[in-house]
Structures are given as C-alpha cells and as structure tokens.
Fold:
Amino acid sequence: MPGLLPLACLLVPLAAAQPATPAIDVAYERDLNAVPAPRSLRAWHDRLGSEPHVAGTPGDARVLDNLADAFERMGLQVERHEFLALLPLPVQGIVEIVSPTVLALPVIERPLAEDPDTAHADLTIGWNAYSGNGDVTAAVVYANYGTREDFDTLRELGVEVEGRIVVARYGRNFRGYKAKFAEAAGAVGLIIYTDPDDSGYRKGLPYPEGGYAGESSIQRGSIVTLDWPGDPLTPFVAADDDATRTDPDDLALPRIPVQPIGWGAASQILSRMDGPVVPGGWQGGLPFAYRTTGGPDLRVRVAVTQDRSLRRSASILGVLPGGVTPEQKVIIGCHHDAWGFGAGDPLAGTIVLLECARSFATLAGRGRVPDRTIVFAAWGAEEYGMVGSVEWCETHREDLLANAVAYINLDAAAMGPNLGVAASPTLKRLIEAAARSVPQAGGDPGETAYETWLGDREHVPFGDLGGGSDHVGFYCHLGIPSCGLSAHGSKGTSYHSNYDTLAWYRQVVGDDYEPALMLTRLTNIVAARLADAPLLPLDLTRFAPDVRVHIETLRTRAQVLDFDADLTDLERAADEFEAAAGPIQKRLDEAVAAGRLDAATLGKINRALMSSRRSWLLEQGLPQRPWYRNIFAATDPDSGYAAWMLPGMRYCIESRDADGLEEAQQRCVGALEATGQLMESIDAELGG
Ligand SMILES: [Zn+2]
Structure:
C-alpha cells in the first residue's frame, strides 16, 4: 500500500548501517515498513477512543468486539482470553470540609466546552480502585508524597497520624504504597491529590490552553499492593470460572477509604491548615505555606463506596502463525482498557500494536509470513494490576517458558518524539540495530531514531525494565526477554484523568501521528528479526556489562545503608563470562553472516539461546514474593514502579542479611556460569 510520505527516501539503507548482525531479510523489513501510515493510526485512535472503557463495563465490551473485528478483518486468527476477576467499580466518593464551615469539594473533572468528550455520561468520578469502603470524619495531616521516608519524617516530628485523614500528593511512589503506609501509620482515610508542582501549572499551561493538569484534573488508579499482580484472588493460576479463589477478606487490600482529587479541591483543605510549617522539600506549588497539621478546628470527611464484585473482561489476541517453526512465538502487547477514553494511556500504544498487526498481516496476505508465530495481544484490565496479561501468562506458563522468544510491550507508547526504551539485556543489541533503520519522528530527512536517541552520548540509554505494565508476567514471572518501547517529550499530561481524550492527544502530542509511526516501524523491525531471522537475535553477552552496572548500584546502596557487601565473586564471574562468551559471539556472528550454518544447527543454537532464561529463574521465587521468579529483575517492592535489579541480592542488602546476600550472590554467579555453558554449547555447534 502506497504511503503518504516518500518512504523510500526516508529509509536508511539497512546493509550499510548494520554492524555484523545476524542475517536479516532487508526487503521484508522494507515492505513491512511501507505499510504503516499516519491516517491509519489516526483511524485506529478514532475507533478505540470514542467512549470511556473501564474494564468490565459496557464500553469495555464494545472495545473487545471492536478489536476482535479488527484482527479478523486483517486475516489473523482471533483468540479471546476471558477472565473473571475482582474488578471494583466506583459507587460514591465524597470529600468535604465539615468544620469550621461546611464545604463540599469536587471529585470529578469539570467538563470543558472546548472538548465535548469531557462531558461524556459514562465518565466516572475520580476513584482509586480497591479502596476500602468507609465514611470517616477527622482532623488532617499532610504527608508530602506519602513515601515510607515521609511517614518516618512525620514520626520524627512527633506528628500524630493515628485517627487522622492523611492528605498526600501524587508522585515519587506507586499510589498504592501511599495508602499502605498511611494505613500502617493508623490513618483512618487518605486523600491523594495532584500538586501543581508535579503535573500542574508550575510545569506549564493547563489543558485546554496547554497540556498539564488543571485545577479539577484527577489521577485515577489502582492502589492494590499485593505481592503478585493479576487478579488479586487467583495468584499463580488462571482466573477462569472454576478457579479456587481466595476470600478478599483474607487479603491485604486497603481497608481505609482513599479518594483522589484535583489541586483546586486540595487547596481548599491545605490553605485552611494552621499547624507547623512543613520541612524542607515538602512545600508544593500552591501559593501558600504548606503545614503538617490542620489544627483542631479543621475537620474533613472522606466517604468511599466501591462495588467489589467479580467482573468479566478479556484480552483479545490476533495470531499470525509462523511458516516454519509456528510453536515459537513473539508476543507484542498493549492493554486496551482505560480509566476514561484512554487516548494516551493506553491507546497511544494500542494503535501502534494494531498498525504493526496490519503491517505483518498485509505482507502475509501477499504470501510472506515470518518463520515464527507473532501474537498481537490487546490485554484487558491492565489498569487494575496487569490482570489480562498475567492471567494469560499463568494460563500458558509451560508453553511460554519453552516457546516464547520475547515480549514487546507498548503501553501508552507514542507520547512524543523522543525514544525511550527499557529492555532486558539480551534484547538491547537488537533494538539498537533496529533503531538505526527507522526515521526519527519529526526529524530531518535521513535522520534516524537511533541518532536522536543517542544524542551526544557514547551509548544509547536503556532503562531497567521494572513494574507497572504488562511485561511483568512475561519478564518477572517467566524470565522471558522483554522490552518496553515508547517515546515521550510532549508538554503535558492527562494521565488517568477524564481529560485523556482524543482532543487532548491531538493538541498536546500532535495530530500528525509521527511518534506512533516511528514506533510502529521500530516495533515492526524488532518483531520481524525476532520472528524471522534464522538466528534468534538474543545477545547473551550483554549480561556481563549489565551485571557490572547493577553491582555498582548495589554497592552504592550498601554504602548508603552502611552495610558491608562483598560483591567481588559476582564481579569476577561477569568478567570470566565476558572473556569466554565475547569471542564465541563473534564467531557466531561471522558464521551467520557468511551463511555457514544449516537449519538444523541454527535450530540447536536458537534453542540454547532461548533456554538461557531458565538459568535466571528461581522456582521458589524471591524472598517474601514467590510469584517473582526472575533473579535478574523484579518490581521494586517499595514503590512498585521502579525496577530492582538482581533483586534477591538487593533484598538482602536492604534487610542487612549477610548470609542471605552470599547465597543470593552465588545464585547469580551460578546463573552467569550456566549462561556461559550455553555459549560453550553454541561454540561446539560452530565447530569451535
Ligand atoms: Zn497503561
């Protein structure tokens, strides 16, 4: 299909830009990337972002049918993976000042004349899924971001939290931990608000004039902090109709009522507080002095009612069976559920997913299918805690462990022109190489995404893959190589608010769909090489430099905690692994580039490359968190967003457990040695 842009002249000649990477089908990649078009991406956006679609609601059900229809029309096999999970919905939320004078505060965004979608009848009040139900009235305490350290500071200051309602601002940690720490400190209720310093007018003009949070903008979101993601009631097993379910009363779900509000409503409370002025760093962006306590006269009411029912939703998968080794699969995913319209989160990624699917399906329609299977997955109920993806991983655990080549996550991907990638070590080389043949969104002719990504650095920056999205089941539970591809840099945020509309996206991120086009092309190339290259582009050698970086982080952390951590064994293991594996990789690259390996040999090498994940998996899981089995990476258990690298070791440093640290270190040494043995077995196949 002819594109709107002169694609041929934008594409960088692949052969010239490639280092000695495994043999790739340049023509296939060029044809794939001639398919995606801005007008098509825009049409997907119109199709999925026309109404609110919270998981388990009628809007969600219509999106499911819409996605199934889209994949079917492309000619893909459609699979509907249903689940029955604990998915609460809001019934009521009240925040009011009850003394000295009564003042009810808004708990929903103001509709905007400039953006008629913001008046849609199906939009909800602001709410935090899994809040406790309750109706409390009490004095207030301001707790800054509500981190563990913030509550420690309040204790040191002698501020009584017991029996009070805590007011905390969004940011720094996952909101669920604000609730957890407030509840642990004895608070009877929690109000979370968006401070203008963090996402409001201190950053830039609010929507609709600019893109930032206005006075009534509210961040919704789940506050569950269990030691496993997915359906809270069915850890480790699929949430199907006959699953054995835990009683919700036996789970550490929040018990206090938690209600989010905008900064306009929060300023009504904060400006009436008259206790001691806050410590350094706690002052936010509102134009008055912030105080830790409200004084005896200021009393606030928080009342929350949620319907905590089991609800049904689904993930919709479009499958393109591979032509040679269909049992091996590459999975590309993004969730489809949202807190409102979800134009940014998730649809800025879902449209990329669909356009990738259309690219591969178009070529398949012309008779060109990849060797391996590609699964295009639109996950359900991610916002509640990665429910759809985790339930799918738990359903297909053994098959995925053996046959999933890699997972590519696209959650809310296209939010600006600046590439941002988090990836497991084995995928970094592939992504770097792929970015060299993708035009930069909004860039000069001939400028690649790689060049802009690199900037004036020596190496492109990769983030550590942490928590907070659908890769967690694949990466942290099953050890499957994973990455999150995205692009940022727009001036504003409508995150989880009723303003996350198509009009917001087109005004703030842009109406040209260039970032989404760039990400579609990048994803197409990464997926094409994973699904079609004769040699799987998994680079085991990257474990060495990455482990060394993570050792440094652990050392720094141990120093901060004044804990003596001897990590030289692992450091030595990384050096030895590198010395042995580097030359093997070079011989492997040369053999592939020269076309010296037959299909049977390649098959054996590919199986060795895929089996490396097992070296890093610990059957019994991490300390206190058995669901997390990857000893290379886990979600940070204290913020929920960040990554803990070499988490078994990190845990022992945090808990100052010297024996445990030694044991965890030897496990990592063992994983590196096992990875080294895989490289030796590959060398044997090369006749080395
Ligand atoms: Zn999302």
Observations:
- The longest strand covers residues 89-99.
